[in-house]
Design goal:
With 340 residues, the chain is an alpha/beta fold. The chain has helices at 2-7, 10-38, 41-63, 69-86, 94-111, 116-185, 195-208, 225-232, 234-249, 277-290, 315-331, and strands at residues 193-194, 214-222, 257-260, 265-272, 302-308, 337-339. It has two domains: 1-185; 193-339, Reverse transcriptase/Diguanylate cyclase domain (Alpha-Beta Plaits, 2-Layer Sandwich). The chain contains eleven helices and six strands. The protein has a six-stranded mixed β-sheet, with helices on both faces. α2 packs antiparallel against α6 (116-185). The longest helix has 70 residues, at 116-185.
């Protein structure tokens, strides 16, 4: 899965980056809207608190015999300016509070006559006005809290966007690392392992071969490949190498190792209970390559040398024996197989 994305990283990186951009933009939009809506809320709450405090102060001073109509007028003026600035936010609370403050004004005028009942009426009027102003403060505070929740959602969306951006960075690093590892292990033109990786696989085959198994190795070399490069150009030579690599890979079983060990030289290592497996594979490969037809290019053939690894034989020695049979096949006329 990772190797597939390593070949086309845009398949996963683009969705991650788009998700990051969308979430971040959404978060900024939501948070910005919340900030815009709450920018005046603190001031509105403070001004509502001034109205509440002005009502309480005016009533106390008046009950103490100190004229305080100016304090009530200031509170009423603050309420009027708050209504003008806050607009619809005060629709439910403005009228009852304004009416209650008007009643308080009348009670303050009456109490100056020294009537005990007037004092009691002033207390009731001030309590009604204070309760309504306190309700107004509470309503504005609740509105501000709900908008702060919207701001928190905006921050969460932005955080998610940052997470996706970070994830895209991590994934890109993983894909680049995997891409580098793939390119270090495989020849991109033919799909075969590079020589050092092929030798590692062959070494593992020899070290872990079962009691009833044989490790077979086949060396291949394209016949007269230099003529292709000289006559048709290196681009044509690359086409031939890619086609031959594909033909050889199509014959592999699960677990077989295929490598490009030279310019036009290939090798295959396989494990089988049949000691003839390497020789049989070489014959199938020779026939498969000979049957290839590339536009405007001559028919290609290859020669092969097939061996079975001996007990205790080193990987490089096995490859050398297969290589000697390969050149024996070329000396015998090419397009043939020689081996154990």
């Amino acid at each position: 899965m990772i190797s597939r994305f390593a070949e086309k990283p845009s398949q996963i990186l683009i969705p991650l980056l788009v998700a990051s951009f969308c979430l971040t933009a959404l978060g900024l939009g939501v948070a910005g809207t919340a900030v815009a809506r709450t920018s005046g809320d603190a001031a509105f709450v403070n001004r509502a608190g001034l109205v509440r405090g002005g009502i309480q102060r005016a009533a106390k001073l008046e009950l103490a015999g100190i004229p305080s109509m100016d304090s009530l007028d200031v509170a009423l003026g603050t309420l009027e300016s708050l209504k003008a600035d806050a607009g619809g936010r005060l629709d439910a609370g403005y009228e009852p509070l304004a009416a209650a403050m008007a009643r308080l004004r009348g009670a303050m005028v009456d109490v100056r006559g020294g009537d005990v009942q007037a004092r009691a009426a002033l207390v009731r009027a001030s309590e009604d006005a204070w309760d309504l102003s306190n309700d107004l403060v509470s309503a504005l505070e609740a509105s501000a809290r709900s908008k702060r929740g919207l701001f928190v959602w905006g921050l969460l969306f932005m955080a998610a966007g940052v997470v996706f951006a970070g994830l895209s960075v991590v994934v890109s690093k993983v894909l680049v690392k995997d891409r580098v590892e793939v390119e270090a292990a495989f020849d991109t033109m033919t799909g075969g392992l590079r020589k050092n990786r092929f030798m590692e696989r062959l070494s593992v085959f020899i070290e872990t071969v079962g009691r009833d198994e044989h490790v077979g190795v086949v060396m291949f070399d394209l016949d007269r490949f230099k003529r292709i490069n000289d006559s048709y150009g290196h681009d044509a030579g690359d086409r031939v190498l890619a086609a031959v690599g594909g033909a050889l890979r199509s014959l592999l079983r699960q677990g077989d190792a295929f490598g490009r060990v030279g310019g036009e030289e290939f090798a295959v290592a396989l494990r089988s209970k049949d000691p003839r497996a390497a020789r049989l594979f070489a014959e199938r490969a020779r026939a498969a390559v000979e049957s290839l037809r590339l536009e405007r290019l001559p028919i290609m053939t290859l020669s092969a040398g097939a061996v079975v690894a001996r007990h205790g034989e080193k990987p490089l020695d096995v490859l050398k024996r297969a290589d000697s049979y390969l050149y024996a096949a070329k000396s015998a006329g090419r397009n043939r197989v020689r081996g154990d």
